[in-house]
Structure formats: structure tokens, C-alpha cells
Amino acid sequence: MxxxxxxxxxxxxxxxxxxxxxxxxxxxxxxxxQLYQDVPDMAEEDPDDxxxxxxxxxxxxxxxxxxxxxxxxGISFSSAMHSLILMDKDDxxxxxAITWADNRAAKYSEELKENGLGAEIYxxxxxxxxxxxxxxxILWIKNEKPELFAQTKKxxxxxxxxxxxxxxxxxxxxxxxxxTGMFNIFKLAWEPQALELLGITTDQLPExxxxxxxxxxxxxxxxxxxxxxKNIPFVFGASDGVLSNLGVDAIDPGVVAVTIxxxxxxxxVVDKPVVDPDGHLFCYALxxxxxxxxxxxxxxxxxxxxVKDQLFAPEKIxxxxxxxxxxxxxxxxxxxxxxxxxGLLFHPYLGGERAPIWNAYARGSFFxxxxxxxxxxxxxxxxxxxxxxxxxxxxxxxxxxxxxxSIQATGGFARSxxxxxxLADIFEQDVTIPESFESSCLGAAVLGMYALGYVDDLSAVKxxxxxxxxxxxxxxxFEVYRELLPIWIRLSQxxxxxxxxxxxxxxxxxx
Length: 511
What we know:
ATPase_NBD, FGGY_N, Xylulokinase, 7-stranded mixed β-sheet, alpha+beta, 23 strands, kinase, Nucleotidyltransferase, domain 5, globular
């Protein structure tokens, strides 16, 4: 037997899946870690906790799979984007990993937008100007933590840190680099204008490599711990978003992947880098010949969790007593409410928002409440608000890449028949649910197989991804949504000028 491991270094946990060369799952492991939010807008993680999680999940799947010597052919990596770690002259972290969700650089993102420099840099890098990006994070550190900035030998991301611990080299592949806001996607090199703005040099950034590049010579300490040879090739891989597209077979032109996990995204693959004239979409590398255009949203499943925790506490207790999921109970409640929630609208901006509005100050709201509305209406409106937001992202993508041919839906929400139908109704298109398990891990594994010559083309993933369900739009429902969507859009435009004011009030008064 021959095996490949796909590892996905995520925001809340690291997952590892052992596959055979046909894409069959042999073993799975998952290890979580803490998110630190010590001050407002902070979202950090301990890079050593994440490194330990990577080693743990690798060890678990190797043991569970009972792999014999010579059977493991490679290990390939997926990773969350936009993380930043500062390393000192002794190659020790000066900071924890500052994640994509950290919002402390919001002021500097706004300044870049206002002075026009942000638009110039976006046109070369394809990374929207937002506090999520290392570009804005480094600018924030330079201005507000100058002593820390001065001590920094290298500015790196989480995956680079993992590879440094395993192999002793600072290397970053194009996919993660293309999400930094400092990488020219047309020249495949660090962008001088961005580096000049930050006051850093290419020597302070990792060496750039292709996602299909490999490395051997694993630190003997970890080789012994994992029970693998130092000659096992590790494939640098790509980012979690683009590999999720690969893992659900959404890599052909016009095939769109819609994902809702804690956050969410809408993505489509194109054959060369392209940017949105309005700066609302990202363009990230899958390989140097395949690029993913799309928009990420902050507010996916995390909104559903807020509804569960803050509005349905009694149902949580009932669910625990019945040993069922609270989310299943809430879905059953929402199903009793008609499409459109009897005119109750919800803007799901509980944690600022990336696409489609790219406003770190955005805040959530219910609109249209009457005495007739109940908590059941509120849960359905919240779910609809998440999908409305994703639909607006899809409309933006259509302007740049054309109308989609088909939609592949993935993520935790895809387990819900109500959500899948809601997606089909609001998007007015058939929605296919792939059978793929841990799509970013599968995407990493397939990219690894391609890099090492075990498959001839990335399209090999087609034989590894089945179809579990197809949902068709309900005409009665989408007519309701057609009527409500323009109101939802206009309302978001009316509220946007006040987002910063209310956010600043909350920062001043909320403890």
C-alpha cells in the first residue's frame, strides 16, 4: 500500500487525514488549541501549541494507519491564511501568532484606503486592504510597537514557523504569500512598494517557493517521535481556502465553492491572476497556473453559535438532556418559519466584516421587528442573513469572472438540509453537496500526489469526491428572496456610515 497525509492547520484546530492513493480515508486526527483575546480586537494563538498539535495529529494517523516502512510517500500541508509571527535574531518568536481575526490594525487599513496607497498595492497583490492581512498588521506594529518592530529578524506565518521547526529553514509558498498583501501576484515576487511602505527588506521575509515544492531532511528528533524516515518528502502545499476548492472538485472554470464553517467564503478558480477594479475580491494562488478569486466573510457559523448561546439558552439545556445537537433543534424551529422570515432581516456583522463590504467596524442588526416576530423568526432571519451576505459576494465575483455554472457547498452548514435549500433558493441555482471529508486535507493530499508524481493532473480529485445530494431552487421561495434582497442591500448601505461611530462607542464603554 501507498499513502499520503494531508494536514490542515486551521484557526481553531489542526486536522490530519491519512489517505490511500485513491483518496480513501484511512485514519483521521484532530487537535485544538486556545485563542487568546486578552484585549479588545485581539485574536492570537501560541505557535508552539500549534506546532505540538501538528506533531500530535501526524503521530496519531501514522499509528492508527499502522503504516509499514516505505508505505508513506509524502506529507502535504494546508494552512489558514494571514497569520503573522515576529521572530528575533535567535530565531525565537517575539509574538504569538496574530491570526486573520485580529482587528487591531483597523486604523491603518482605513488610512491606506483613504490615501489611495491601498488601492495601488491591492492592484499588484490581489489582497484586499483589511486588518486581516499581514501588510496592515506589520504597519500597526511598526507604528505602535516600534521596539518590537526593531527586534524583528523575520516576519513569517504559521506554516513557515512549522516548517522552520521541522527543517530549520524559512520558506513560504506562493499561496500563503499571495494572502499577505506584500506579494506581487503577477511577478511572483515580494512587492517593493509594499515593503517600502513597511520599511522592511526581502531578507526579513521567507524565501518564496512553489506550492508543489518539497523538502526532506526532517529534524531527527521529530522523525524519531513520529517513526518516519528523514527522507519522507514534505510538500509545502497551499492555503486552506484554495485547497478546499480542490478538495471539493471546484477547480474547473465556473464551478463555485461556497463554504460556511466558523467563517465562510465564495471562491472560483481561474487560469491567471485577476483583480477586482473595486478592490472587493481576493486573488490567491493554488499553483502558479491556477488562481482562486473570491471573497471571505467573517460571519458564518459563528453567528449561528451566537444565536444558540444568547437567544436559545433553554433549548441548550433541553438538547443536553436529550443528548441531541442544539443546532438541530434550532434548525427544526427555523423550518417552521416561511422563507423571508415574515419580513425580518438580519445583517450578520457580529465581528466586523470582510467581503463584501470590507469594513472592520461593521456591526450586526435586526431590521423589521414587529410584535408578530418570535425567536423562531430571529433564528431563521440570522441564517438567511448569512446567505444573503454570501450571495452579494457571489454577485461581485460574477462581475469579474462571469456567471457560475454550478455551486459546490461545503462546511459545517452543509449538514443541514434547511441551509442547503436556503442556499439554492437565494442563489437561484442548483447546489451540489460533495461527499468530500475534510476538503482542505484532501486538497493538500491531492496537491501532494501531484507534486510527487503519483497523479498526472489535479483533476484526479474527481475520482475521489462523490456527491451526496443536489438541491434545486424552490420558485416560491426565491421569488420572496428576490423581493427582500434589494431592501437588505439598501439597508446595509444606509447603515454603513454609522458603523465606525457605534464601534468606537462600544470600544469606549463596553468592558
